[in-house]
Specification:
mainly alpha, two-stranded antiparallel ribbon, about 160 residues, 3 helices
């Protein structure tokens, strides 16, 4: 493959770059510089905005969690003060109590109790398959031994079949 470039289209007689080529080079170079500057500016602004939003949201959320609300009765009398953080703490503590008995109500049990029940059921089912396998093997072996003894006794073998 052969590539030929006619330099008379790029450089004039005096060795100066032709205006059209120079304008195109300047346009491409300018666009790359502008694109790089925009990208750098966008990254810097994004970083500052994200840091600012994270800082403000952290402060806002902490203030909201610790803001005191007042529970009132239907006549407007104050009953108690509470914060969102306290309500969350109470709910988490309530979920971490093991309810060790079933009652006659059909209410939903808390997450901690359900988690414990599922873990126990899983382990029991694993153990029960192993236990049932051992029981079945033992029963089969005892059954075969008894059958051989009974057959040997009826056929008159003194020491059994084996």
């Amino acid at each position: 493959m052969k590539v030929e470039i006619d330099l008379s289209d790029v450089i004039d007689k005096d060795g100066v770059i032709v205006d059209d080529v120079r304008d195109e080079i300047v346009a491409v170079a300018s666009q790359k510089i502008i694109d790089n500057a925009n990208k750098t500016l966008q990254e810097a602004v994004s970083k500052v905005v994200i840091e600012s939003v994270e800082k403000k949201m952290t402060t806002f959320i902490n203030e909201l969690l610790d803001y005191e609300f007042e529970k009132t009765d239907s006549w407007g009398g104050n009953l108690e003060k509470w914060t969102v953080r306290e309500k969350i703490r109470e709910e988490v503590r309530g979920q971490c109590v093991l309810v060790d008995r079933e009652d006659s109500y059909s209410r939903k049990r808390n997450a901690f109790t359900e988690l414990i029940d599922r873990a126990i059921s899983k382990e029991v089912s694993k153990s029960s398959t192993v236990i049932f396998k051992v029981i079945n093997e033992t029963f089969y072996n005892d059954l075969m031994k008894n059958a051989q003894e009974q057959l040997a006794k009826r056929l008159g073998f003194a020491k059994g079949l084996v």
